[in-house]
Amino acid sequence: MIKLNFVKNKEKDFIETWECRYFVRDSKPPHGFEHEYLKEIFDKWDGPCDEKDIYFITDDDTVNVKLRKSSKPKPTIKVRVLRDKREEFELWRTEINQMLPAPAKVWSHVLTRLNFKGDVDLLSSCSESHQVKKELLAAQPNLLHVEARKSRWRYFKLQGEMEVAKIVIGPSQFYSVSFESKSKNPGQVRSIRDKLPVDMLGIPKNYVRLLSEILLK
Q1: HSE of 96 in the Cβ direction (CA atoms, 13 Å)?
Q2: Cβ 33 vs Cβ 196: under 8 Å
Q3: CB of 197 within 8 A of CB of 24?
Q4: Which regions of the chain are under pLDDT 70?
Q5: pLDDT value at position 77?
Q6: Are 30 and 176 in contact (CB under 8 A)?
Q7: What is the pLDDT of residue 10?
Q8: Cis ω on the peptide bond leading into residue 101 (within 30° of 0)?
Q9: How far is 59 from 186, CA to CA, in rounded Å?
Q10: How many angstroms separate the CA atoms of 141 and 139, rounded?
């Protein structure tokens, strides 16, 4: 049995995840990443899970801020920060993953990451994602933002996880393929990736980079 050593932060119980993510512009999953094939080679799988995310993009490409509306009872505000890179894998720390309405101290941190001032008391009264979006854009009208609709499948092995997601951004359709692990290094989940035809997927990139490219075209 493989023993995993999970990433821990000494200051706070942050969740840190190694990720290697690919995007392919297509309306169907890449060959070799179809659900009927993947469910046979992984120990467990789950999905599809439908979600709608609103990403807020700043000049700092190490910060990922999004509102998520999914099958959960309440939408969430999530902040992730890029902490490290190791070859094609990136280490992302989840600083905030809070259901709405979120307390003022959460919004204070979100606004710091977005690098502008806003009314934290007003934001803390918002229980719906569209209300948060309205207030953030009122405080910063030029704030770049993108809505992405997703349908995600997740696959599990002891060495790590894999996600395949269909993504719709405006008129464009993508498939995302990612390999993820909460171990201290990405070596174990890399062993999963290297057994699959990732060469055909192009160069890895994260959501912030993809959405920045779409917005700045």
Answers
A1: 25
A2: yes
A3: no
A4: 1-12, 72
A5: 98
A6: no
A7: 37
A8: yes
A9: 27
A10: 6
Q: Could you write out the three-class secondary structure of the chain?
A: CCCCCECCCCCCCCEEEEEEEEEECCCCCCCCCCHHHHHHHCCEEEEEEEEEEEEEECCCCCEEEEEEECCCCCCEEEEEEEEEEECCEEEEEEEEEEECCCCHHHHHHHHHHHCCCCCHHHHCCCCCHHHHHHHHHHHCCCCEEEEEEEEEEEEEECCEEEEEEEEEECCEEEEEEEEEECECCCHHHHHHHCCCCHHHHCCCCCHHHHHHHHHCC
Q: Which residue has the tokens 């704030």?
A: 143
Quote the distance between the C-alpha of residue 177 and its chain's center.
12
200-203-208 Cα angle (round to 5): 130
Amino acid at 104: A
